[in-house]
C-alpha cells in the first residue's frame, strides 16, 4: 500500500467511544481517487529529514510548473490533482508563487469538481490585492447569474472568503437582491446573508441600506432555521450602525426565541443538539437583543422576561443527558441569558437570580464553567443592583486565585477581584493579590502590579498603607513595576505632606536590604532627596548614614538611576550642609567628572560648580522641595486601559458606586504655572521647576528622568502634545517647547511690550545626523496684520546641535489668525517639512490697566451693545482654584473680586487700541465657568473669548 | 466572528488552516506555531479557553480549542462569539467529519485536505456560522459527492 509509515493516528469522536480503534482506511481505496496525490503525500510523510522533505517538494513544484507551462493542454482532472498538491504544499508552510492562473481557469469549467477546487485554491491562496481579481470577478459574475444554486453558493463563498474592496465594489449591490429574492433557494439565501455581512464588515460604505432591510428583518420568521441563523448574524452586525432601520427585529427576535425556548426538546428535530433545542440560534438571538435597550412594548417585554425566567429555571432542572455536550449547549444559552440580563441592568429580581446562578458555577467541577462564571461576574460587579451580591463571593474568588490550576482561570479571578473591590474589602483584596504576585505566572505579573497599584491608590484611607503596598510591589516584583507605578508613588508622596515622613522612614528601611531592586533605589533616592530631613533627627538615619546607604548602591545601578542619585546628592548638600564636603568629594572623583556618559558627566560638573559657587540662599532656592504635582488621570490607569482595551478601568472610572472615593486626588493643590525653559542644557532648572500643568514631556533620554515624572502617560507614542494643543498652551505663557518629534525639538522664548514683541526660536537637532538645507521661514497668511522681521538661521544643523532664530514682531492692528512657521530640511536624504502656528495671539499685546471696582462696572455698562459682547459657558478644564485663576486673569488685567473675577486691559496695536473688559464667573458645584468679554471691537471680543475659554 | 480555524497534531504539524482575515503566508505559519505553542503546553482538563497569541490580536481574541487524540482543533474568535457555543461547533465539526469519513482519523485529514475544506465551508463562511445542523451539512456533502461521481462516470 502506498500509505505506510507514521504512527497510527485517529480522531476518536467522544460521542462514539471506540471510534479510535478503527483501522486506517488507505486514502486511495476510497474510490474518489487521485492516486498521484496520495503517492506524493505519502512520499512527504516518509521523508526522514526536513532537507529530504524540501527536496521532494521542490521536485514536485518543478514537475507541476513544467506541466502547467507545457504545450499539452491539461485536462480538468490533472489540473485538479496539481492544485490539490499545491494546497498540500502550502499547508506545510511553503510559498506557492504559481498556479493561480490555472486555478482561475478552473473557475470557468462546467464541471462542479473542477470549479470547486478552483474556488478552494483562490480562497486559500489569493490575497485581496491580487491582479487576478478582475478575472475572478468575471467568473463569479457568471456563476451568480447561472441560477444554479450550487454554483451560486460557491461564488458567494468566494466573495465572503476573499472579502476585498474590489469584490465589494463589483457585487455589493447585487447581493441584497439575491438575499431577498422570492425564488432564491434556502442555501443561497444563507450564503448571501453571510456574504453581505462580510462585505459590510470590510467596506460598510459599499452596502447601501434600502428597501431590502425590512425584508431582511422578516427573515427572522423564515421556516428554515439555517436561514434564520445566517440572518441573525447579519442583522446583529448591521443594526449596530443603523439601529432605527432594524428596530422591528426586537419583537421578531423575542417571539422566535420564545418559540425555541418553550419548545419540547424534540420539536426542532435536526436543530436539537443533545436534547437542547437550537442552542446556537438561541445564543445568536440573545446576542442580537443585547444590541438594543429593553423592549418598550409591555407585551414583548413580558414575553421576553418569561423566556429569560424559563432559561434560568431550566438550569435548575436535572440534566436530560450526562453528556458534556448537553450541559455545554444548555449553559451556552444560560450564559448568554445572563449577559442580556446584565445588559438591561433594570430587573433587580433577574439580576440577583443571575448572580446566584453564577455563584453556583464558581464552584462547579467543570473548569470551563468556573472560567465563564468569573468572567460574567466581572460585568455583574459594575451593576449597582448586584455589586453587593457579587461581593459575597469574595472568599470563593480568592480561593480560585490561590488554587486554580489553570492560569486562564486565575487571571479571570484576578480580574473579578479587581472589579469587586471597594472601600470595604480593598485591604483584603490588595493583600491577596500581593500574595498571589509572589507565585504568579510571568505573563500576567505586570497586569497584577498595575491593578494592585491602582487599587491601593484608589482606596487608600491612610497613606502609610499605600506607601507600604507600593514598596511591597517593588520588593516582590520589581522587574514588573513600570515607570508609571513608581512615578505615581512619588507624585503622591510629594503631594501629601502627612505621609512624607513615613515614606522617608520606610524607604530608608527598605534600602537596608542587601539586594534591593533598582526601582527601590530610584524611589528611595528621590524620596530621601526630598524628605530625608524628616528622619535625619534619628541617629540611625542621620544624614551621613542616609548618604552612605544610597551611595553603597550607586555603582550597581544603571546610568538613569545614577543620574537620579546625583540629583539626590546635590539636594542633600542643601538639606544637610554637613554632607557637603563628602558629596563634593564624590562629585569631584574622576569617575564622575570624566564619566564616559555625557549626562552623568554634565550633572557631576554642574552640581559640583553649583555647590561651590552658589550662596546658601541661592542653593536653597534652586534646590527647594518639589512643588505639588498637578492632578490628572492616573497614568497607571491609563496604562492598564492601554493594556486591556477600553473598559478595563471601568470598575474605577465610574463614580456611581463610590463617588466620594478619590480622596487622594481630592486634596491636591494644582500647581501655579512656572516658566519652563526649552533649552535642553538647562538641567538644573529642569530638576526643580515644575513645568506648567501640561508641559510637553521632554525627550526620553536618561537625563530627563525627573522631568518625565511630571508627565502622565510616559509611554505615549508621540513625543509631545499635538501642535494644536501646544499652541493653545502658549496663549497664557511665553516660553516652552512648541513642537517635538523624533528628529526635531522647537523651543520658544518670547516677550511682548506694547505693540511689539520679540521671539526666540530654538531648533534642536535630536539626531546624530546633520540636517541639510535647514530653512525655517515665517509665512504670513493674507489677513494677518502682524509684521515679522526674521533673523536668519544658518543651515546646515549638525547632529545634536541647536540653532537660534530671532523674530521681531510688530502688531499693526488687531488680528485673528497667527503667523505660520514653515520648517523644511533634509534628514538622511529625505525631505522633511512641517508647518506650525507661531504662538502669537492677540492677547499677547494686552496691557493690564489698574481700575477701581466702580470704574470697571461703569465701563462694563458702557460697552453694552450686543456685538461688543462675547460669552461662553464651558466646563472647567483645570481644577478650580481661586489663586491660580486669579493669576491667569491678572495676566490680562486687574483683579477686583474674589469669586467673580474681572479684568481690564488694552490691546496695543500700531493702528489702534482696543479696550477690553473680562468677567469670569465660576460655578464650583457644576465645575463650569461663564466667561464674558466686552471690547470695543466685535471680532476681538469673540476671538479673545474663544482663546481664553481654553485656559480655565 | 471567527478569525481562524486551525487543526494541528500533537507535534504541531498543521492539518488544516483557514484564515478569515487576510494574513501574509509567513504570518499564517507563525500564527500556527504560536497557537500550537500556547495550546500544547496546557494540561488536560484545564479550561478550553485562553487569550489569543499576540500575532492574532492578543487579548481581544480568544482561542477555543478541543483536543481529540492526536489532533487539536482550535478556533480563534473575537468577543462576539459564545465560548460554549464555539465548543459545540467544534464538536459538530468533528462529528460531521466522522460521518463523512466513516470514523475519521488524522490520515483522512492529510489525504483529503480539499474535502475537509469543503465540509468546513458548509459550516462556516467568511468567519460566520452558516449552518449548525449536522444532517443538513452531511446532506450537502453527499450531494456534492454524487455530483463528483456522476462527473467522473461521464
From TrEMBL, chain A:
Domain (Clathrin adaptor alpha/beta/gamma-adaptin appendage Ig-like subdomain) ranges: 728-839
A Gene Ontology biological process noted in the UniProt record is: intracellular protein transport
Q: Which residues bind a 1,2-diacyl-sn-glycero-3-phospho-(1D-myo-inositol-3,4,5-trisphosphate)?
A: 35-36, 67, 77, 81-85
Q: Which GO terms describe its molecular function?
A: clathrin adaptor activity
Q: What UniProt keywords are attached to this protein's entry? A: Cell membrane, Coated pit, Endocytosis, Membrane, Protein transport, Transport
Which regions span the lipid bilayer? none
- Return any one Pfam family short name: Alpha_adaptinC2
Gene Ontology, cellular component aspect: AP-2 adaptor complex; endolysosome membrane
Membrane topology recorded in Swiss-Prot or TrEMBL:
Peripheral membrane protein
Q: Where is this region: Disordered?
A: 639-698
Cellular location of this protein? Answer: Cell membrane; Membrane, Coated pit
Q: Which Gene3D superfamilies match?
A: 2.60.40.1230, Leucine-rich Repeat Variant, TATA-Binding Protein
Give the main localization category.
membrane
Q: For bias kind Low complexity, which ranges apply?
A: 670-689
Report the function annotation for this chain: Component of the adaptor protein complex 2 (AP-2). Adaptor protein complexes function in protein transport via transport vesicles in different membrane traffic pathways. Adaptor protein complexes are vesicle coat components and appear to be involved in cargo selection and vesicle formation. AP-2 is involved in clathrin-dependent endocytosis in which cargo proteins are incorporated into vesicles surrounded by clathrin (clathrin-coated vesicles, CCVs) which are destined for fusion with the early endosome.
Q: Which family does it belong to?
A: Belongs to the adaptor complexes large subunit family.
Self-association state and partner proteins as the record states? Adaptor protein complex 2 (AP-2) is a heterotetramer composed of two large adaptins (alpha-type subunit AP2A1 or AP2A2 and beta-type subunit AP2B1), a medium adaptin (mu-type subunit AP2M1) and a small adaptin (sigma-type subunit AP2S1).
User: What is this protein's name?
Assistant: AP-2 complex subunit alpha
Species assigned in the record: Pan paniscus (Pygmy chimpanzee)
Q: Corresponding gene?
A: AP2A1
Automatic annotation (TrEMBL), chain B:
What sequence ranges are listed for the domain AP complex mu/sigma subunit? 1-147
* InterPro entries cross-referenced by the UniProt entry: AP_complex_ssu, AP_mu_sigma_su, APS3, Clathrin_sm-chain_CS, Longin-like_dom_sf
Q: Does the keyword Methyltransferase apply?
A: no
Q: Does the keyword Transport apply?
A: yes
In the bilayer, the protein is annotated as: Peripheral membrane protein
Record's superkingdom? Eukaryota
What are the GO cellular component annotations? AP-3 adaptor complex; cytoplasmic vesicle membrane; Golgi apparatus
The protein's location, in the record's own words, is:
Cytoplasmic vesicle membrane; Golgi apparatus
| Keywords of this entry | Cytoplasmic vesicle, Golgi apparatus, Membrane, Protein transport, Transport
Cross-referenced SUPFAM superfamilies: SNARE-like
Per the record, the GO terms for biological process are: Golgi to vacuole transport; intracellular protein transport
* Chain's role: Part of the AP-3 complex, an adaptor-related complex which is not clathrin-associated. The complex is associated with the Golgi region as well as more peripheral structures. It facilitates the budding of vesicles from the Golgi membrane and may be directly involved in trafficking to lysosomes. In concert with the BLOC-1 complex, AP-3 is required to target cargos into vesicles assembled at cell bodies for delivery into neurites and nerve terminals.
Q: How does it assemble?
A: Adaptor protein complex 3 (AP-3) is a heterotetramer composed of two large adaptins (delta-type subunit AP3D1 and beta-type subunit AP3B1 or AP3B2), a medium adaptin (mu-type subunit AP3M1 or AP3M2) and a small adaptin (sigma-type subunit APS1 or AP3S2). Interacts with AGAP1. AP-3 associates with the BLOC-1 complex.
Q: Which family does it belong to?
A: Belongs to the adaptor complexes small subunit family.
- Descriptive protein name: AP complex subunit sigma
Originating organism: Pan paniscus
Amino acid at each position: 500500500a502506498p500509505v505506510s509509515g507514521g504512527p497510527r493516528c485517529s480522531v476518536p469522536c467522544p460521542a462514539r467511544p471506540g471510534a479510535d480503534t478503527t483501522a486506517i482506511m488507505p486514502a486511495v481505496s476510497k474510490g474518489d481517487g487521485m492516486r498521484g496525490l496520495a503517492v506524493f503525500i505519502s512520499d512527504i510523510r516518509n521523508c526522514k529529514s526536513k532537507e529530504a522533505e524540501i527536496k521532494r517538494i521542490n521536485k514536485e513544484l518543478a514537475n507541476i510548473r513544467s506541466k502547467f507551462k507545457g504545450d499539452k493542454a491539461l485536462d480538468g482532472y490533472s489540473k485538479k490533482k496539481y492544485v490539490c498538491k499545491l494546497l498540500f504544499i502550502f499547508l506545510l508552510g511553503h510559498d506557492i508563487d504559481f498556479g493561480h492562473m490555472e486555478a482561475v481557469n478552473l473557475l470557468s469549467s462546467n464541471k462542479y469538481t473542477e470549479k470547486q477546487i478552483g474556488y478552494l485554491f483562490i480562497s486559500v491562496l489569493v490575497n485581496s490585492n491580487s491582479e487576478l481579481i478582475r478575472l475572478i470577478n468575471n467568473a463569479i459574475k457568471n456563476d451568480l447569474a447561472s441560477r444554479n444554486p450550487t454554483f451560486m453558493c460557491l461564488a458567494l463563498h468566494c466573495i465572503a472568503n476573499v472579502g476585498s474592496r474590489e469584490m465589494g465594489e463589483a457585487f455589493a449591490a447585487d447581493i441584497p437582491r439575491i438575499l431577498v429574492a422570492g425564488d432564491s433557494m434556502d442555501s443561497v439565501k444563507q450564503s448571501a446573508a453571510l456574504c453581505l455581512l462580510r462585505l459590510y464588515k470590510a467596506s460598510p460604505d459599499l452596502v447601501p441600506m434600502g428597501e431590502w432591510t425590512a425584508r431582511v428583518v422578516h427573515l427572522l420568521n423564515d421556516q428554515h432555521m439555517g436561514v434564520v441563523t445566517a440572518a441573525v448574524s447579519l442583522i446583529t452586525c448591521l443594526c449596530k450602525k443603523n439601529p432605527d432601520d432594524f428596530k422591528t427585529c426586537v419583537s421578531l427576535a423575542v417571539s422566535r426565541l420564545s418559540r425555541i425556548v418553550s419548545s419540547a426538546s424534540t420539536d426542532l428535530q435536526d436543530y436539537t443538539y443533545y436534547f437542547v433545542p437550537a442552542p446556537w440560534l438561541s445564543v445568536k438571538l440573545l446576542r442580537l437583543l443585547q444590541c438594543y435597550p429593553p423592549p418598550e412594548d409591555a407585551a414583548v417585554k413580558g414575553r421576553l422576561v418569561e423566556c429569560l425566567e424559563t432559561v434560568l429555571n431550566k438550569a435548575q432542572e436535572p440534566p436530560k443527558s450526562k453528556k458534556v455536550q448537553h450541559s455545554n449547549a444548555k449553559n451556552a444559552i444560560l450564559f448568554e441569558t445572563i449577559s442580556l440580563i446584565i445588559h438591561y441592568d433594570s430587573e433587580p429580581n433577574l439580576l440577583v437570580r443571575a448572580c446566584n446562578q453564577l455563584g453556583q458555577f464558581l464552584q462547579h467541577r467543570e473548569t470551563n464553567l468556573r472560567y465563564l462564571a468569573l468572567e460574567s461576574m466581572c460585568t455583574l460587579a459594575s451593576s449597582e443592583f448586584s455589586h453587593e451580591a457579587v461581593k459575597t463571593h469574595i472568599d470563593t474568588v480568592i480561593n480560585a486565585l490561590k488554587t486554580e490550576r489553570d492560569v486562564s482561570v486565575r487571571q479571570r479571578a484576578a480580574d473579578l477581584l479587581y472589579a469587586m473591590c471597594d472601600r470595604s474589602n480593598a485591604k483584603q483584596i490588595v493583600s491577596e493579590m500581593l500574595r498571589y504576585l509572589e507565585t504568579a505566572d510571568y505573563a500576567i505579573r505586570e497586569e497584577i502590579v498595575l491593578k494592585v497599584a491602582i487599587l491601593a491608590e484608589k482606596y487608600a484611607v491612610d497613606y502609610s498603607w499605600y506607601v507600604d503596598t507600593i514598596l511591597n510591589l517593588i520588593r516582590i516584583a520589581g522587574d514588573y513595576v513600570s515607570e508609571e507605578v513608581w512615578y505615581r508613588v512619588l507624585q503622591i508622596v510629594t503631594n501629601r505632606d502627612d505621609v512624607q515622613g513615613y515614606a522617608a522612614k520606610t524607604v530608608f528601611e527598605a534600602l537596608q536590604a542587601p539586594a534591593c531592586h533598582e526601582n527601590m533605589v530610584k524611589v528611595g533616592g528621590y524620596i530621601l532627596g526630598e524628605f530625608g530631613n524628616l528622619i535625619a533627627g534619628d541617629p540611625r538615619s542621620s544624614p551621613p548614614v542616609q548618604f552612605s546607604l544610597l551611595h553603597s548602591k550607586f555603582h550597581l545601578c544603571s546610568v538613569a538611576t545614577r543620574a537620579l542619585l546625583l540629583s539626590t546628592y546635590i539636594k542633600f548638600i542643601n538639606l544637610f550642609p554637613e554632607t557637603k564636603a563628602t558629596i563634593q568629594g564624590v562629585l569631584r572623583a574622576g569617575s564622575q567628572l570624566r564619566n564616559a556618559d555625557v549626562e552623568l558627566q554634565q550633572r557631576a560638573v554642574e552640581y559640583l560648580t553649583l555647590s561651590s559657587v552658589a550662596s546658601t540662599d541661592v542653593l536653597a532656592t534652586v534646590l527647594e522641595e518639589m512643588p505639588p504635582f498637578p492632578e490628572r488621570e492616573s497614568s497607571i490607569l491609563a496604562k492598564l486601559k492601554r493594556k486591556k482595551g477600553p473598559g478595563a478601568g471601568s470598575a474605577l472610572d465610574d463614580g456611581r458606586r463610590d463617588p466620594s472615593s478619590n480622596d487622594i486626588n481630592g486634596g491636591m493643590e494644582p500647581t501655579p504655572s512656572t516658566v519652563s525653559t526649552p533649552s535642553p542644557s538647562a538641567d538644573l532648572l529642569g530638576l526643580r521647576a515644575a513645568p506648567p500643568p501640561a508641559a510637553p514631556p521632554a525627550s526620553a533620554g536618561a537625563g530627563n528622568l525627573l522631568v518625565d515624572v511630571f508627565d502622565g502617560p510616559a509611554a505615549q507614542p508621540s513625543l509631545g502634545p499635538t501642535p494644536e494643543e501646544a499652541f493653545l498652551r502658549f496663549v497664557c505663557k511665553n516660553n516652552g517647547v512648541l513642537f517635538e518629534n523624533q528628529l526635531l525639538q522647537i523651543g520658544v522664548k518670547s516677550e511682548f511690550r506694547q505693540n511689539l514683541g520679540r521671539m526666540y526660536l530654538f531648533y534642536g537637532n535630536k539626531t546624530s545626523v546633520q540636517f541639510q538645507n535647514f530653512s525655517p521661514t515665517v509665512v504670513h497668511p493674507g489677513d494677518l496684520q502682524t509684521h515679522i522681521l526674521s533673523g536668519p538661521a544658518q543651515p546646515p544643523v549638525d547632529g545634536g546641535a541647536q540653532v537660534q532664530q530671532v523674530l521681531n514682531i510688530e502688531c499693526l492692528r488687531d488680528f485673528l489668525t497667527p503667523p505660520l512657521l514653515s520648517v523644511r530640511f533634509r534628514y538622511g536624504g529625505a525631505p522633511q517639512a512641517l508647518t506650525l502656528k507661531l504662538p502669537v495671539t492677540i492677547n499677547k499685546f494686552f496691557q493690564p490697566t489698574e481700575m477701581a471696582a466702580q470704574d470697571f462696572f461703569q465701563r462694563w455698562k458702557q460697552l453694552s451693545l450686543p456685538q461688543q459682547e462675547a460669552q461662553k459657558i464651558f466646563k472647567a478644564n483645570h481644577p478650580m482654584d481661586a489663586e491660580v485663576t486669579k493669576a491667569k486673569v491678572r495676566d490680562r488685567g486687574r483683579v477686583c473680586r474674589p469669586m467673580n473675577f474681572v479684568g481690564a486691559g488694552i490691546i496695543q496695536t500700531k493702528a489702534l487700541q482696543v479696550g477690553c473688559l473680562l468677567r469670569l464667573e465660576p460655578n464650583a458645584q457644576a465645575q463650569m465657568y461663564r466667561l464674558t468679554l466686552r471690547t470695543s471691537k466685535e471680532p476681538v471680543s469673540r476671538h479673545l473669548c474663544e482663546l481664553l475659554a481654553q485656559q480655565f | 466572528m471567527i478569525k481562524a480555524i486551525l487543526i494541528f497534531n500533537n507535534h504541531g504539524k498543521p492539518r488544516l488552516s483557514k484564515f478569515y482575515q487576510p494574513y501574509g503566508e509567513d504570518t499564517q505559519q507563525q500564527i500556527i506555531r504560536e497557537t500550537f505553542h500556547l495550546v500544547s503546553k496546557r494540561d488536560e482538563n484545564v479550561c478550553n479557553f485562553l487569550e489569543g497569541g499576540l500575532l492574532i490580536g492578543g487579548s481581544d481574541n480568544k482561542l477555543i480549542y478541543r483536543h481529540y487524540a492526536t489532533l487539536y482543533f482550535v478556533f480563534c474568535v473575537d468577543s462576539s462569539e459564545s465560548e460554549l457555543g464555539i465548543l459545540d461547533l467544534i464538536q459538530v465539526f468533528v462529528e460531521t467529519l466522522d460521518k463523512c469519513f466513516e470514523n475519521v482519523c488524522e490520515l483522512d485529514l492529510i489525504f483529503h485536505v480539499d474535502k475537509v475544506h469543503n465540509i468546513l465551508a458548509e459550516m462556516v463562511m467568511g468567519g460566520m456560522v452558516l449552518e449548525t445542523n449536522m444532517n443538513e451539512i452531511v446532506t450537502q456533502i453527499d450531494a456534492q459527492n454524487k455530483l463528483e461521481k456522476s462527473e467522473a462516470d461521464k
